[in-house]
Amino acid sequence: MTRSIVIGAGMVGLATAWHLQEHGVDVTVVDRGGVAAGSSWGNAGWLAPAKTIPLADPSIWTYGPQALIDPDAALHIPMRVDLSLWSFLARFAAHGTQRAWDRAMAALTPIDKIALESFDELLGGGIDSWTREGPFVIGFQREQQAKGFMRDVAGVIQHGQSVTVERLDDPRALAPQLSHNIGAAYRMDGQRFIEPGPFVHALADSVEARGAEMRLSHEVTAVSSASAPSVTLATGETLTADSVVIATGAWMPELARQFGVNVRVQAGRGYSFTVETAEPAEHPVYLPTQRIACTPYQGRFRIAGTMEFRGPDDPLQHRRIQAIVNQVRTLMTGVDLDNRHDEWVGSRPVTPDGLPLVGQTRAPNVYVAGGHGMWGVVLGPATGKLLAERIATGRTDPAIAPFDPLR
């Protein structure tokens, strides 16, 4: 039996481990924290291929400068001397053109199309969890603000996805959390959501039950491709296998750069918290102008937002939580924003061109899986399936060919 070491116990790493097991591979999962300890736990949990689109678009040239002077803006860049960060931002902004957006959208569309069925495959394979249909309620203060959202929807449809969006006369019938300051709203169907932390833990339980060794709270300090692939733990222990998968999110460069993975990965940190609501929250809510996503979560309402470009290990910045509160306070009603639980920050791995990094590195039998930006949860199972196929059979599925980590 062949063996593989997967570094990273988030959605992407665990989905890769699960599918490697489907190919008869013996798996060891190593993570310095624990299951879903990175950006997999506190995100909005949206399985929305229709919104799995490139982060950089032409609006960055108008929104970006405004965000720099608005302390409550969703985009936050600390004003400090950081040449590496500003170099990344320059490359990211260079992709803020319609041509670059279309190019990246064309590359994402094939994996977007199989994202939901990949969740169904995990659930059909015994994962003890669930996915739930929308509708997603999309709210704006004024009708004019919907133009950018509808343009994105049109772009997604143009590239081959099927998306249903309808105008709502009374958004509060589906989302009573929205205040009367929401003057225009739509429903988007065909998308789903999960409770991400519980889902990833259920996936980990399945991987372990099928025979994987789980080495949690073990930090990998080095990966080697000499003779047999191996990883060295902080304890000094060395583990060997036939292949190694680096799925460490925003921390990927620390281990992958030596293998020719030179595409910059920057932590784009997202924040969230949960609140009680006067009426039960049953459907996801999206406020595109404020870039805030909300989801029912264990009887509460999770409110998530912000794209903060900082170091992945920087502490939680309470000012970013307050910025989200300030943005939604007049747009929601019956929501106890001053009694927040589960305040969280997670470092999402963002690439300049908006495409993931999935595939073989310069070293035989060393692979990477990450760089999904905000889309690691929705694309994680499909990524894991197609990368496991590449490792086990040598065949690269066309859906991940554009994500070549050596590009």
Record the SSE blueprint:
Blueprint: E1 3-7, H1 11-22, E2 26-31, E3 46-47, H2 60-69, E4 75-76, H3 83-94, H4 98-113, H5 115-124, E5 132-133, E6 136-140, H6 147-158, E7 164-167, E8 184-189, E9 192-193, H7 196-209, E10 213-216, E11 220-224, E12 230-233, E13 238-240, E14 243-246, H8 252-256, E15 266-275, E16 285-287, E17 292-297, E18 300-309, H9 318-328, E19 341-350, E20 357-360, E21 366-370, H10 376-393
Parallel strand pairs: 1-2, 1-14, 2-10, 4-18, 6-16, 14-21
Antiparallel strand pairs: 3-9, 5-9, 6-8, 7-8, 11-12, 12-13, 15-18, 15-19, 16-17, 17-18, 20-21
Please count the helical segments. 10
CATH architecture of the largest domain: 2-Layer Sandwich
Helix/strand/pairing category = alpha/beta
Task: Summarize the main sheet.
Answer: 9 strands, mixed
- Total count of domains: 2
Give the assembly state of these chains: single chain
Write down how many β-strands occur, each being a DSSP E stretch of 2 or more residues.
21
The overall average pLDDT, rounded, is: 96
The CATH superfamily of the largest domain is D-Amino Acid Oxidase, subunit A, domain 2
Question: What is the radius of gyration?
Answer: 20 Å
CATH class value of the largest domain: Alpha Beta
What's this model, at a glance?
This protein is α/β, with parallel strands linked by helices and 407 residues long.
Describe this entry's structure for a reader:
With 407 residues, this protein is of the alpha/beta class. The chain has two domains: 3-40 and 198-262 and 354-403, FAD/NAD(P)-binding domain, CATH 3.50.50; 49-192 and 265-350, D-Amino Acid Oxidase, subunit A, domain 2 (D-Amino Acid Oxidase, Chain A, domain 2). Helices cover 29% and strands 25% of the residues. It has helices at 11-22, 60-69, 83-94, 98-113, 115-124, 147-158, 196-209, 252-256, 318-328, 376-393; strands spanning 3-7, 26-31, 46-47, 75-76, 132-133, 136-140, 164-167, 184-189, 192-193, 213-216, 220-224, 230-233, 238-240, 243-246, 266-275, 285-287, 292-297, 300-309, 341-350, 357-360, 366-370. Strands 4, 6, 7, 8, 15, 16, 17, 18 and 19 form a nine-stranded mixed beta sheet that branches. The protein has a six-stranded mixed beta sheet with strand order 10-2-1-14-21-20. Strand 11 (220-224) and strand 12 form a beta hairpin. The mean pLDDT is 96.
